């Protein structure tokens, strides 16, 4: 059996394989196809998670860029946006997934068009 362990607040995804159980599956089915298919599905799921995290991080870097260009602290931006200052930090670090309404609040607080927050290189 394969398990995926996600370490919260870190871009660390560790794949832990129980080799004994995999070998039992291979021996019982006399084929590697089943195991390789399962591994391929797990890798695909992990890639989607990594892409999502990378996107959140790139978005957060944009928020940070605009905030620092305006010499705003977390608290100052939070007051302008009506968002808790700890969430501003989490957004900038790509640690949380936000709603569309939060994007609108951020853009209003930064006095920019919401589209500007998505103007980053898409190397995801």
Task: Walk me through the topology.
Elements: E1 2-6, E2 13-17, H1 19-29, H2 33-69, H3 74-81, H4 85-92, H5 100-110
Antiparallel strand pairs: 1-2
Helix pairs in contact: 3-4, 3-5
Commentary on this structure:
The N terminus is likely disordered. A two-stranded antiparallel ribbon has the order 1-2. It is elongated, with a radius of gyration of 20 Å. Helix 3 packs across helix 4 and helix 3 crosses helix 5. The chain starts with a strand and ends in a 14-residue tail after the last helix. By secondary structure, the chain is mainly alpha-helical. Helix content is 60%, strand content 8%.
Shape: elongated
Roughly how many Å is the radius of gyration? 20 Å
Order of helices and strands: EEHHHHH
Major sheet: size, sense and barrel closure?
A: 2 strands, antiparallel
Percentage of residues in strands: 5-15%
Low-confidence sequence ranges: 1-18
- Total number of strands: 2
Helix vs. strand class: mainly alpha
Largest sheet, spatial ordering of strands: 1-2
Helix fraction by DSSP (H/I, runs of at least 4)? 55-70%
Mean pLDDT: 76
What's the N-to-C terminus distance? 29 Å
Tally the helices: what do you get? Answer: 5
Short description:
This protein is mostly helical and about 120 residues long. It is built from 5 helices and 2 strands.
